[in-house]
Design goal:
This protein is mainly beta. The strands form four sheets. It has a 22-stranded antiparallel β-barrel. The radius of gyration is 25 Å and the shape is globular.
Length: 677
């Protein structure tokens, strides 16, 4: 109730300001929206397929990166909650979940270790109010990034600029609130950027409140004209209630939608359903340090990053009056050191580098320990290292090429001798890459790419494979991977397409892609927790991206994705869904209309997702019906430093789900005020 009143107060203040303040013609106000920038005519060094440019980003309504990615071709979103949801399948890139692509923040990896319920990508740790653009590399076409099938999502924040910042306040439906602050400054040699954010929302699904605090500082110092050292720290403290099962019958609360509930991560065979008041708290800190030296023909740099994450889980008795579980898991202690560089040599731009990653987690403990629970020792550890060299060059006036070669190696073993016995695992592979583009004429470019793919098991996959391999009796002998060596995923990706500047107003791009994967790792992260190889998986489809500028004030964007999957060798599992991957819709389309005429901005977007098959509780095939959602945003500039925004999500109150058992909110309203400082 308190947050609802807060939202109404903000809306009232906004209405008064909108009605009573004259507005002069000023620069475009702060607003959060993606703009597709279609690839230029030659093969670029970063190999980016799509760049989402967030001009002077204000999170406004957009609380996470997935919301900004929703309308992009080749990307599927699968959320359970309206704000702050984090799980392995929240974002899929060309049909691959977060274990199969890499997420970078200013070039540093943020994919977490992912153990004991930990998430591989925590989107809530990314400070949206300083994001400048998002680069998407689809498929494994870049030698600079290894151990990936789907590609790379590189989130780039604003680094330098005029001294100043902004404060953003948002309030809205279901207690949603944002208080966001960022400020950048500089001296002769020192640059700094500081953020302080607080976000949250009331529960839409039962017991699923969300609150997060975020603090960050980034410093860079120009030692000389050619040498720069940078250091950054970003800390996020999150508290979220576990989603409780809410179905007619015992312990049903009609004040919340009918929904499934979460399970606390297992311990010693105990699978705990959350009761009223159950929650988790996560403390995540990213550290990074880099040194860059510019040369006459390029640069070289050294990078170090470290993740420090722990998660506290608390559950109560069925009445919600007494704590029956209180444990802390040190879920990520990973770090990495890397070296990379680039140099120009005539028509060639040569890149090179190497990195060494230690995936680790730490020792946990119980403050309230349930019966039969074991001490928490880190069971497994993984060392990953890779090296690459690549070359971007023009063959002649019409042909351009990218050649790359990468080697990746994984070594995995038991960490603490008191923990679960893990089998040693050692594997590696060379991955060549080639991309060619041909300039047909001044307006049309065609391109083709063929790349070797390779990915080793993640921390969680390695753990559950080892657990089942060691089993000697009981139901685990029915595991399809029982006493079989896990293998890394490997295969090839193929891509062909064309982009054309049809006129000064209209650009279009069509891409056909296919990925053939051998030994696809099927990870069933619900009971009975199977992990094993599927013989073959194929993912193929088409993407169509369009930008049409009607005039200086009006622009239309349209994307369409057609996606297919197939698999062979999984007849023993997946409840009959043996011929395809689940949660991969066949058709997806997004339309956006942008209006920009000082002092107004308007954004109207439509997202369509076709029906899709889903495996429910590992034993039933269900179908999610297709759905279409509409969203509206209006921004009004008040003066040089202030703007007010109104957002309406799910304009026509569509009732739908993106994951079986978890309905998403209906129509939602938000009001945002932005003050530049």
């Amino acid at each position: 109730m308190r947050r609802t009143k807060k939202a109404l107060a903000i809306a009232a203040v906004a209405s008064v300001m909108l009605a009573g303040i004259p507005v002069a013609a000023q620069e475009t106000p702060t607003y959060s929206l993606e703009e597709i920038v279609i690839q230029a005519e030659n093969v670029k060094k970063d190999n980016a397929d799509t760049t989402i440019s967030v001009k002077t980003v204000s999170p406004g309504k957009a609380s996470t990166i997935p919301e900004l990615l929703r309308g992009s071709a080749g990307i599927d979103i699968q959320q359970r909650a309206g704000a702050g949801d984090n799980q392995d399948t929240t974002v899929k890139l060309r049909g691959f979940d977060a274990r199969r692509y890499t997420v970078l923040l200013n070039g540093r990896q943020i994919n977490a270790a992912g153990v004991m319920g930990g998430q591989y990508v925590d989107w809530t740790t990314i400070p949206l109010n300083i994001v400048e653009k998002i680069q998407i590399i689809k498929g494994g076409k870049s030698a600079a990034h290894g151990n990936t099938l789907g590609g790379v999502i590189n989130i780039i924040t604003r680094e330098k600029g005029a001294d100043g910042g902004e404060i953003n306040i948002l309030g809205g439906s279901r207690g949603r609130y944002d208080y966001l602050f960022n400020y950048a400054g500089s001296t002769d040699k020192l640059n700094f950027h500081v953020i302080a954010n607080k976000t949250g929302a009331n529960a839409f699904l039962r017991n699923n409140d969300y609150d997060a605090d975020q603090y960050g500082l980034r410093l860079s110092y120009n030692i000389t004209a050619k040498d720069t050292i940078s250091v950054g720290v970003n800390r996020t403290e999150t508290k979220r209630g576990f989603i409780m099962e809410n179905k007619p019958g015992a312990n049903y609360d009609p004040g919340f939608p009918v929904s499934d509930g979460e399970m606390l991560s297992p311990d010693a065979g105990i699978f705990t359903k959350p009761n009223p008041g159950a929650f988790w708290e996560k403390y995540n800190t990213y550290y990074d340090l880099s040194y860059k030296h510019n040369t006459e023909t390029g640069y070289w740099r050294l990078d170090y990053w470290k993740n420090d994450e722990k998660r506290r889980e608390v559950n109560f008795n069925p009445e919600g009056t007494k704590i029956e579980l209180d444990r802390t898991v040190v879920s990520d202690k990973s770090d990495s050191i890397g070296f990379s560089g680039q140099t120009k040599a005539g028509a060639h731009t040569i890149g090179y580098g190497g990195e060494y990653k230690q995936l680790r987690y730490g020792y946990g403990y119980f403050d309230v320990c349930p019966k039969k629970a074991n001490d928490i020792y880190p069971s497994q550890k993984i060392d990953l290292w890779g090296a690459y060299i690549d070359d971007s060059f023009k063959i002649d006036d019409r042909w351009s090429a990218y050649l790359g070669l990468r080697y990746d190696h994984l070594s995995a073993s038991q960490d603490d001798a008191r923990a679960t016995m893990m089998r040693d695992f050692d594997t590696g592979e060379l991955s060549p890459k080639i991309s060619l583009s041909f300039k047909n004429n001044d307006t049309t470019t065609t391109f083709i790419s063929v790349n070797k793919l390779w990915r080793a098991p993640s921390m969680a996959e390695y753990y559950w494979w080892g657990m089942k391999y060691n089993a000697n009796s009981g139901p685990d002998v029915n595991n399809p991977g029982y006493h079989k060596q896990i293998k890394p995923e490997q295969g090839y990706s193929y891509e062909i397409g064309a982009e054309q500047k049809v006129s000064d107003k209209y650009q279009t791009k069509v891409t056909l892609y296919r990925q053939d994967i051998n030994d696809y790792i099927n990870f069933q992260h619900t009971f009975p927790f199977w992990c094993y190889n599927i013989d073959k998986v194929k993912v193929w489809g088409a993407e169509w991206e369009n930008v049409y500028r009607l005039n200086d004030a009006n622009k239309i964007m349209f994307t369409y994705t057609n996606q297919h999957t197939a698999k062979a060798g999984s007849d023993l599992t997946n409840a009959g869904l043996a011929g395809e991957l689940d949660y991969r819709p066949r058709h997806k389309a997004a339309f956006a209309y942008n209006y920009d005429a000082k002092p107004w901005q308007l954004r109207y977007s439509v997202n369509f997702v076709s029906s899709q098959k889903a495996l429910y509780n590992n034993n039933t095939i269900r179908e999610i019906g297709g759905y279409t959602t509409h969203n509206l945003a209006i921004v009004r500039e008040l003066d040089k430093t202030r703007s007010v925004s109104l957002y309406v999500d799910n304009l026509f109150d569509k009732q739908y789900v993106e994951q079986i058992g978890y309905p998403l909110p209906g129509r939602s309203y938000y009001v945002s005020l932005t003050q530049k400082i």
